[in-house]
Amino acid sequence: MPLKETFSAYKRRAWRTFCVFQAKLKESLSVYERLAWRTFLVFQVGIVLTGGAVRLTKSGLGCPEWPDCVEGSIGPQPSQIEGVHSWIEFGNRLLTILLVLNVAYVVIAARINKRHGKLAWFQLGGLIAQIVLGGITVLTDLNPLTVAGHYLLSAILIAGIVRALHQIDEHHAAINVKREIFLLSRVIVGLTAIVLILGTFVTGSGPHAGDDQAPRYPFDAAKLAILHADVVIALVVGTISLWLLLRVTKRPVPRAYFYFIGAILLQGLIGYLQYFTGLPEALVAIHLLGSGLVWSAANFLFYSFEKESIVND
Ligand code: HEM
């Protein structure tokens, strides 16, 4: 065979191998992409909990500097007066690294698969903002406004992750429902957001500041907790009404609904328990974890109903 033909045959084979490799890479990236978004959701909810653990063990200023833990050292020093608190806060900072690796994967997968790019970049931007806000929180001596901002930014990022998971799930189809039911689902998610925001005000006025010197809101924490719980009662009523409306109109009840109602009922119970038992740290931590789960479930519920699926009959 002439040299030119042999060369073209090799070229064709190399090109075919490359195409197969590229297709396989895309395929496995798609499989792991979903997994990556799922672990990202777990990490985001998890960091809300570990961030809370820092506050509840009064380790919020365990590392008094940022990005260094203590002047001249990125990690804690044995000579530090903060002692074990410096390690607790440093541990939380280290967890951020896992989130950074996870977001890097999600961004690379989005680039290669050419989809969910905006959502992936949004997560990267959000994480950077979260790291900066973490620094501001330390530098403002755990001001409740920045602590709340830190928490609520996590909630926004969780909403973005659920959106990505919803887009990745190609078999998902929203339920055909009447406009009233669709609107009620939006009211429920809106009420959940209000419960979260009010919760941060209760915490910002309560005893778990993270440090004895940390500033507090000048509000009555007990009264705010009652207001917070009242909105939860409205939320429970709205959620049960949604179930009734779905049954009456003979529509299926989405799976996300059961996660959501289960989560708010449990969370409400823990809320009352912690309120009546003087806010023990362990219950407050579980309540914090519960808030991340409730919010994730609310966002999954959101995507069970879509504007395009509204029916008029
Ligand atoms: C769907 C149900 C609920 C959700 C999603 C929720 C969510 C939250 C959130 C996000 C916080 C702030 C956490 C933080 O910033 O560290 C909070 C704090 C709090 N919640 Fe709830 N909550 C719910 C139900 C209740 C109920 C029924 C009560 C009963 C009174 C309650 C009592 C409290 C109290 C006392 C705090 C302050 C805890 C502290 O001092 O750190 N919560 N809640």
TrEMBL record:
Pathway the protein acts in: Porphyrin-containing compound metabolism
| GO cellular component terms attached to this protein's record | membrane
For this UniProt record, give its keywords in alphabetical order, as a comma-separated list: Cell membrane, Disulfide bond, Heme biosynthesis, Iron, Membrane, Metal-binding, Oxidoreductase, Transmembrane, Transmembrane helix
Q: Per its UniProt record, what Pfam families does this chain match?
A: COX15-CtaA
- GO MF annotations, alphabetized: metal ion binding; oxidoreductase activity
* InterPro entries according to UniProt: COX15/CtaA_fam, COX15/CtaA_HemeA_synthase
Renumbered to this chain, the signal peptide range is none
Where in the cell?
Membrane
* GO BP annotations listed: heme A biosynthetic process
Query: Where is this protein primarily located?
Result: membrane
Name under which the protein is recorded: Unannotated protein
